[in-house]
Design brief:
Layout (H helix, E strand, L loop, with lengths): L1 E3 L2 H10 L7 E3 L12 E7 L8 H11 E10 L8
Parallel strand pairs: 1-2, 3-4
């Protein structure tokens, strides 16, 4: 499952990374449209630096993560220029 707020990013993923076991959908990280404890692994890659409510996003990520699940967050240091 991959989520993104950008329709263009979702369409790109569907076109270039299609697979019958893959699902891409438009969603906001602060309002993930899945039940509690839905995933045993959550990866957030280059996401949090673009979200104003970072605490809310992390809280929502933890909500959908199963107890004992794995969480990997990669984000740039906001003090470094791109």
């Amino acid at each position: 499952v991959g989520i993104d707020v950008s329709n263009e990013s979702i369409e790109f993923a569907k076109k270039n990374y299609a697979g019958k076991n893959l699902l891409y959908q438009i969603a906001d990280t602060t309002k993930i449209p899945f039940d509690d404890n839905s995933f045993n692994v959550v990866i957030s890659f280059d996401t949090l630096e673009h979200i104003e409510d970072q605490k809310g996003a992390v809280k929502e990520i933890v909500r959908v993560l199963m107890p004992g699940g794995k969480l990997l967050i990669y984000t740039l240091n906001k003090n470094i220029r791109y």
